[in-house]
Design brief:
By secondary structure, the chain is an alpha+beta fold. It contains 5 helices and 8 strands, in the order ααββαααββββββ. The longest helix has 28 residues.
């Protein structure tokens, strides 16, 4: 059958090819279904027909897909926690670069009342400052708190303000600096005018 397929003409190969597929399918079904040990293949060697069995099964244990399920779950949680922490750090960094925060630090440095308690070189207390609260100037909502330090001592600054529209100035509700338990009300001073 295969020999006829090789030497036949192009136009004559189609019926031979179809009959060949039918024969192969019948041959495969006959041996694969009824011979669980493998597929018998016969070939002629030196004028003799030699039949050998080709195994169709894998002689080894297949891997269990659920063995590493716990490990994959740990990888997933580690990745999720890492991405969450990275987002938190990025958002906090954006707060430290906000014009509101920078203006607040600048006005603290210009205040004699504040520098008399904190000292000079007023800045964030930590090189990696953490600003807690909400800082959304687009919606007009400011409620932040962060630690500051000077050359003498440290303090905690708290600012709460809001506004109804972008064209209106902020309405300051609370602007205080706590130093060693003493609360300085900065809302009534000129420090609130920058808002």
């Amino acid at each position: 059958m295969l020999k006829a397929f090789r030497v036949g003409r192009i136009g004559a190969t189609r019926p031979v090819l179809r009959s060949g597929f039918v024969g192969i399918r019948h041959y495969s079904e006959q041996h694969v279904i009824h011979n669980p040990e493998g597929v018998e293949k016969s070939q002629q060697v030196d004028g003799k027909i030699v039949t050998r069995t080709i195994p169709v099964t894998v002689e080894r244990e297949l891997p269990d897909p659920f063995v590493s399920q716990k490990q994959n779950r740990n990888y997933f949680w580690t990745y999720g926690i890492g991405v969450t922490l990275a987002c938190v750090v990025i958002f906090n960094y954006e707060k430290t670069r906000s014009p509101i925060v920078n203006s607040t630090l600048y006005l603290l440095r210009m205040s004699d009342e504040v520098t008399s308690r904190l000292g000079d070189n007023i800045d964030f207390k930590s090189s990696w400052p953490w600003i807690s609260g909400t800082l959304n100037t687009v919606n007009g909502d400011i409620d932040i708190e962060f630690a500051v330090k000077g050359s003498i001592r440290d303090g905690m600054l708290k600012l709460r303000a809001s506004r109804t529209s972008k064209t209106q100035p902020f309405d300051v509700h609370e602007f205080t600096l706590t130093v060693d338990g003493e609360v300085l009300d900065l809302k009534q001073s000129a420090l609130g005018e920058f808002l």
